[in-house]
Design goal:
Blueprint lengths: L12 H15 L12 H8 L3 H13 L3 E4 L3 E4 L8 E2 L2 H11 L3 E11 L2 H7 L6 E11 L2 E11 H4 L4 H6 L2 H7 L8 E2 L8 H5 L1
Antiparallel strand pairs: 1-2, 3-7, 4-5, 5-6
Helix pairs in contact: 1-3, 2-3
Length: 200
């Protein structure tokens, strides 16, 4: 594990929760390089904890070299952190995707908009290019076993409807749209489930 991906868990359950949430936002690109985080008091109000708890979480993020704190200029994200990836063997990945399509899924949201920075970079999208964002819960029988957020370039996504995505596996819709998957990468990590994910 490189320095930029190391993890320093602070003491206290609440501080760990805030730390993991902020760390996930930084690593996923929600808080981009150079962006300024909210002040301690605002963060405390947002997370329903004390400023002491926020300081512990920020101390751990600073130890991880994800942020830097300067008097008078606030807390900034230090650098763009590239998510860890692992190469996927297409001979095994594609059958797994197809098999997953045999399970049912529940569509939670469906919309079009600007791609987050990390998505635009991964897809090599130009400025202003929009994507379809869909959030789904995949079910094995009646039991939820995964929470998925997918981004598809608008020029491809317009080939199918919201109703299609609610009833047909995305992999099949992409094939139907003429997309041939030639390579893939996986990003594996762990984070706390937010209320929206836990309730889904």
């Amino acid at each position: 594990m490189t320095d930029q991906h190391r993890q320093t868990l602070p003491e206290g359950g609440k501080a760990r929760r805030v730390y993991l949430l902020l760390r996930d936002d930084i690593l996923s690109g929600v808080h981009g390089a150079g962006s300024v985080l909210a002040g301690e008091q605002k963060l405390a109000e947002m997370h329903g904890v004390s400023r002491v708890t926020i300081r512990r979480a920020l101390d751990a993020l600073e130890e991880d070299r994800l942020i830097e704190r300067r008097a008078g200029s606030g807390t900034r994200v230090r650098e763009a952190v590239q998510p860890q990836t692992m190469a996927a063997d297409m001979a095994t990945l594609i059958p797994q995707i197809v098999k997953m399509g045999q399970h049912s899924a529940r569509l939670l949201s469906f919309s079009y908009g600007a791609a987050p920075d990390h998505v635009a970079e991964a897809m090599e999208l130009g400025e202003g290019n929009r994507v379809q964002r869909a959030v789904r819960v995949r079910l094995a029988g009646e039991t939820p076993f995964s929470h998925l957020t997918t981004y598809v370039p608008e020029d491809i996504a317009t080939n199918y409807s919201e109703a299609d995505l609610a009833n047909v596996p995305l992999y099949q819709l992409l094939e139907r749209s003429g997309v041939r998957v030639s390579s893939a990468s996986q990003r594996v990590g762990a984070t706390l489930a937010g209320p929206d994910v836990a309730e889904a």
